[in-house]
Amino acid sequence: MRKLLAALAVSLLLPSAAAAGGFATVGLDSPPDGSGTWRVELTILQHGRTPLDGLDPKVIVKRGSVRRVFAAEPAGPTGVYRAEVVFPAPGIWRYVVDDGFSSTHTFPPVRVGNVKDEIAPVEAASTGGGPDIPLALAAAAAAGLAAGLAGRAIRRARPPST
After folding, report:
1. Contact 95, 68 (CB under 8 A)
2. 94 has which bridge partners?
3. Which of 35, 46, 71, 123 is deepest in the core (most CB within 10 A)?
């Protein structure tokens, strides 16, 4: 029974520890300006602090069924990458950055060109699909507490040694 509870505790902790692992943040030197071409520099930092080198980040633009992917190349300083994005047509475009490390980061839609017949959807900015660190830490703490309580219950339920 003790081994089963120990295995359960470990299995609860592993996903939390994995989610709390490596993540990256992406900073843009400028948002799209609404013209058809956008030259952007991405700064990719592990844990929001350490510049990451050797990645293959991409800027992905989407509108309806149209999807275009633009590779970003190293731009000099470690952690900085440059992409040349060409929006295929005027309209409201959504864009995301695949950081090439851990996740995809979503940004608010952009209006490209002189578009009068479309209404831009109202959306909040998103930080992307990175792990939720506070949630992972809370889950790890809850799993640790559950394992401790289970161990205590087992000790109390055990007949005294003579």
Report:
1. no
2. 62
3. 46
Same domain for 15 and 94: no
Instruction: Please indicate, yes or no, whether residues 104 and 57 belong to a single structural domain of this protein.
Output: yes
- How many residues are given for the chain? 162
- Asked whether the whole model's pTM tops 0.70, one would answer no
Domain that holds residue 98: 23-129
Q: Cα(121)–Cα(115) distance, rounded to whole angstroms?
A: 13
Same domain assignment for residues 81 and 57: yes
Q: Is 132 exposed, middle or buried (0-12, 13-18, 19+ CB in 10 A)?
A: middle
Q: How far apart are CA 33 and CA 85, in angstroms?
A: 12
User: Region 19-42: what's the mean pLDDT?
Assistant: 87
pLDDT at 45 over 90: yes
Quote the number of domains for the chain.
2
